[in-house]
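ERR on first pass: missing label on line 2. Operator R.T. fixed the label and resubmitted. Corrected input:
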Amino acid sequence: MVNETKYHNDLKKDAGIIVLVLGLLYFSETFVFYKIMSTLWDAVPEARTLFPVYLLFLLLLLGIETIGCITVYKSIKEHMYDFNYYD
Amino acid sequence: MSGNTNSEHAGVVKTLRPYHVWALGVGIVLVGEYMGWNFTVAKGGILGSLFALLVAGTMFVMVSLCASELGSSTKLAGGPYDWARLFVGPGAAALVGLAVYMEFIALEAADAIVVASITNSIFPEIQTFPVTLLIIAFLTFMNYRGVVAALNLNFALTFTALIAIIVFFFANITGFAGTWHPEYLISGAMPNGFIGIFAALQFGPWFYLGIEGAAMCAEECKHPTRAVPLGQQAGMITLLLGSGMTLYVCSGLIPAAELGTSVYPLFEAATATGSTFLIAALGIGTLFTCIASANGTVCDASRSWFALSRDKFLTNWFADVHPRYSTPYRAVIFTMPIAIAFAFSGFLDQVITFSIISGLICYVMIPFSLIRFRKLFPEHSQKVRPFVGPLQPTLAYITIFLAIVIMSTLNWGYGFNLIFGLLFYVIAYFYFSWRYKSIEINHDWGEDLGWPEPAHRR
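pass 2 clean. output:
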C-alpha cells in the first residue's frame, strides 16, 4: 500500500529543489549578464550591436532549462507510483 | 563510473540516488570553472567569454536533456558508447567509445599539469613534469585498487570546491572581498574584434565538458528514471551557476590580458582580493577539484577502454577484471602511458583542445543517437521511454548544429589540431568498422532491454 501523503511530500521536496536551483540560476545569470553588458554599454559600442544575439542565447539557455525542469517534474509525478520512487 | 561491464556490474547493488548522479557529473566537470575556461578571454576578451558561456551553455543544456532521455531509457552504464552501439551502429559506437576515452584522458593530463603548476608556484625548486608524473601514477594506483572510496572522497572534494566559488561570488558582490574593476572589462572587452568573439567559442565547452558523464551511473541507480533526469538537470544548473559566477569575479579582479593566460584564474582572482580566507579557500578548491576531476576521469576513461575491449573492438586482453579488487586493472593501468604522453607536451591549451575535439565528437553523436532512438522506437511507453525529453528531436538537431559550429571555430589558432583530431577519428571509424565486420553480434531487444522489436522490424 502506497503512502500517498509521503509521496506528495517527497514530490514537493523534489519540486522545491528544482525551483530553488532555478531561482538561483535566474538570479546569477541575469545578474552577470546585466553587470557585464551595462559596464560595456557606453564604453564599447560593439556591445550594443551584439546585444540581441547575447539576449537570444540567454533566453534560449534559461527557457530550455526551465522547460527541461518542468518536464522532469511532470515525469516524476507521472511515474512515482509505478516505479515506487519514494519507498 | 561508465562501467558498461557485465562482469563488473553483475549483482551490483542499485543504491545511487539523484544527488549521486549530480555529484558524479559535477565532480568531473567543476574543474572547468577553476581552469581552462579563461582561454576564451585570450581569444575574444570578456565579451567573447560571455558569448562562449551562453552558446556552449545552451548546447550543454540540450545535451543534458538528450542524455537524460537516453540514460533513463536504456539504464546502461556505458553512456554515449552504449547509446551509439544500440541505436547507430558498431563503427559509431567504437568512435564514441574512443572519443570518450580521449576526452577524459586529456582532461586527466590537464588536471595533473595544473596541480603540478600549483605545486611549482608554492615550491619553485620542484619541477613541474616529475610532479605531473607522480600525480598520474598515484591516481592510476587508486583506481587500480578500487573506486568506491575514491568516488565518495570525490563528492566531498567537489562540494567544497563548489561552496568556495559561491562564497567568493557573494563575498565579492556584497563588497566583502576585493574591488570589482569595471575598467578591466572595458580594456579587455574584445581584443580581437568580432572574429575573436566567434573564435572564443572553441574554449566555451570547457565550462561544462563531461556533464553527460552523469548519466553513466544509470545502471547503479535505485530509480534511474527519476535519478538520472533530476540529477543531470541539477548538475547542469550547478555548472551554469558556477560558470557565470566564475566569469563575473575573474573578469573584474584580473586584467583581461593576464586572465587569458592564467593557469588557475580563480585562485589568482582570490589572490587579488587580498583576503587570506578566500586565497586559502580557492587554493584548496583548485587542488581539490583537479584531483577529484582527474580521479573521476581515470575511472571513466578506463571503463570506456574496457568496454571497447570486452566488445572485441580492441584486444580482449584489456577486458580482464582484477580477482581481488574487481577493477578492470589492465585498462586502468593503460590510462597511464596515454595520460603521460598528453602531459609530456606541457602545453595546457593543446591538451585541452584535444579533449574538446573529442568531447564535441560525442556531442554530435549523443543527439544523433537520440534521433535514431526515436525513429527506432517511436512509442512513448513506460517501458521504452519513461522520461520523454521536451521539444525533441528539434533540440537534438540544434545541438548537432551548435557542436559543429563550435568545432569549426577551432580553425582559429588550432586548425592543425582540428585536422589531426578529425583525421584520427575518421581513421578510427573506418578501422573499427572494418574490424567489426568479422564479429557477429545480434541485438535481442527483448532479452537485452525488455523492449519490443524496433519499428522497422515489426
